[in-house]
Amino acid sequence: MSQRIAVIGAGKMGEALLSGMLRAGKQPGDLMATVRRAERAKLLRERYGIEIVTNAEAAKSADTLILAVKPQDMEVLLDELSPYVSANQLIVSVAAGITTGFIERRLTEGVPVVRVMSNTPVLVDEAMSAISPGAHAAEEHLRRTEEIFKPVGKTIRVPESQQDAVTALSGSGPAYFYYLVEAMTDAGLLLGLPRAVAHELVVQTAIGAAVMMRDSGEHPVILREAVTSPAGTTAAAVKELENHSVRAALIAALEAARNRSRELASGHE
């Protein structure tokens, strides 16, 4: 018998998960979603052929509930769901800063909860999703969660104590690369290139470097040294990066993101 999955709050992340599950072989009849706006409901019905239901209806009939609402909306949502959720269901939360304990305390005793920190490349099937079990989640629940997220990227299991670090490194990570591309494009302008040309050069270079890191299995230091000839152009550039403490600035930036994630989580305990 197939498992029914409901996405509660099918925004961009929720829709990406719905699309990924359908591509992975799930049938539209196995999926349902909840949304706030009628026009959004109409779009999802027409695009995916899935059923749009209320939060209560989803909680009554789904085997797995994916909570994809904003963190500030989570407490109200859990109050709405709690009368209908049982320990036979799986709760998967993708809300940043919301701990499994926060969810468990607001539901029936023994409900399995899995926390996932993904990132925006979920929209192009290149997400990195870190999965952590709550107190009542077993291997079966982790496998079910991985089946949902693998069609939209890679998954990794981590202890929940590491989720703030994951948020800093991977959840916020795409923004750091966009920032770097923006800065390198501006440098290209300064060096005399048209913006469109500079942008294309930087983006394709970033894609190529990422694929090489992924597929070669080489440490990034080895790959960097392969580009860096003694006393050459790359060596001169890397020297300037070190002179300006770029490595130290990155470490400080990630620590700041980690600390902010902890602050946000402490507000949902």
Low-confidence stretches: none
Order of helix and strand elements from N to C terminus: EHEHEHEHEHEEHEHHHHHH
Task: Specify the oligomeric state.
Answer: single chain
- Which term fits the overall shape? elongated
Count of DSSP strands: 8
The major β-sheet equals: 8 strands, mixed
Rounded to an integer, what's the Rg over CA atoms? 22 Å
Determine the N-to-C terminus distance.
Answer: 37 Å
The level of helicity is 40-55%
Strand content: 5-15%
Structural class: alpha/beta
Strand order of the largest sheet: 3-2-1-4-5-6-7-8
Q: What is the residue-mean pLDDT, rounded to a whole number? A: 94
Note the total helix count: 12
Question: How would you explain this protein's 3D organization?
Answer:
With 269 residues, the protein is an alpha/beta fold. It has twelve helices and eight strands. It has an eight-stranded mixed β-sheet, with helices on both faces. The longest helix has 22 residues, at 195-216. It is elongated and about 70 Å long. The model has no long low-confidence stretch (mean pLDDT 94).
Features:
single chain; 269 residues; alpha/beta; 12 helices; 13% strand
How would you summarize the topology of this molecule?
Layout: E1 5-8, H1 12-23, E2 31-34, H2 38-48, E3 51-52, H3 55-61, E4 64-67, H4 74-81, E5 90-93, H5 100-104, E6 113-117, E7 127-133, H6 139-149, E8 153-157, H7 163-171, H8 173-190, H9 195-216, H10 220-227, H11 233-243, H12 246-266
Parallel strand pairs: 1-2, 1-4, 2-3, 4-5, 5-6, 7-8
Antiparallel strand pairs: 6-7
Helix pairs in contact: 7-12, 8-9
